[in-house]
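Field reference: sequence -> structure
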Amino acid sequence: MTTSATANTGAATGPVTAQDWGGGWNNQRDVTIRQGPSTTSKKVGTLKKGKIVKCWVAGCSGTHNGGAYKCTSTSPTEKDWHEVLWNGKKAWAASRCLEWGRVA
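Structure field:
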């Protein structure tokens, strides 16, 4: 999948919605999307390798401290989560398991 993703380095001009501002992706593996910011929260879906999930808030700004997770068995333990738009509802993705930025 080809995306035109760049670092989110500034504010957009004019009205911008989360749906056309930013998102997350991972070209290495599938990533679980959850109902809350914890691995104990209900799984609501899987972001497949190479796909994009849109941010809930414009610019993907801010992360939220939540439950601990590891992106791989050898990666460090993390606790930062991003709010994402999943099937029209707010859901959560492990921040360090995805790349974040502007998507086309």
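Note: The chain has a mean pLDDT of 82.
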